[in-house]
Amino acid sequence: MYNFLSVFIGALIAIMIPLNGILSEIIGNYTASVVIHLVGLVAVVIVLIINKNKILFEKGIPLYLYSAGAIGVFTVLFSNISFSALGASITIALSLLGQSIASIVIDHYGLLGMKVAKFEKKKLIGLLFISSGIVVMTIF
């Protein structure tokens, strides 16, 4: 189930980037980023109401964990900027490469509280395939 969910997330990102990018081209990068996140806020509030969940802030949560919200803002903003110059497929491919490299480093060193998962050669093979695909996509 989690594998399917991860593939579904990838499909949603492939849909989201062009939608966000086109909106950004029409109303501007910063305004689009605000609109995108306001719509996201409304959507999650609706989900909370439907599920009858409450927003709880636990004491003792390290402040750096809240930085993911800012990272999300910059991710949307930078993908909108990249989309205008590169299009959807190259933006997504390069994003995948960046995610792959960062996740390998995070896993290998156990950063951000993750359990250590040492780098294995099979991950290098996968990274080389991704990189090769991106090179082919950008050259041709």
Automatic annotation (TrEMBL):
The chain crosses the membrane at residues 34-51, 63-83, 89-112, 124-139. Keywords: Membrane, Transmembrane, Transmembrane helix. One of its GO terms (cellular component) is plasma membrane. It comes from Bacillus paramycoides. This is EamA-like transporter family protein. The keyword Membrane applies.
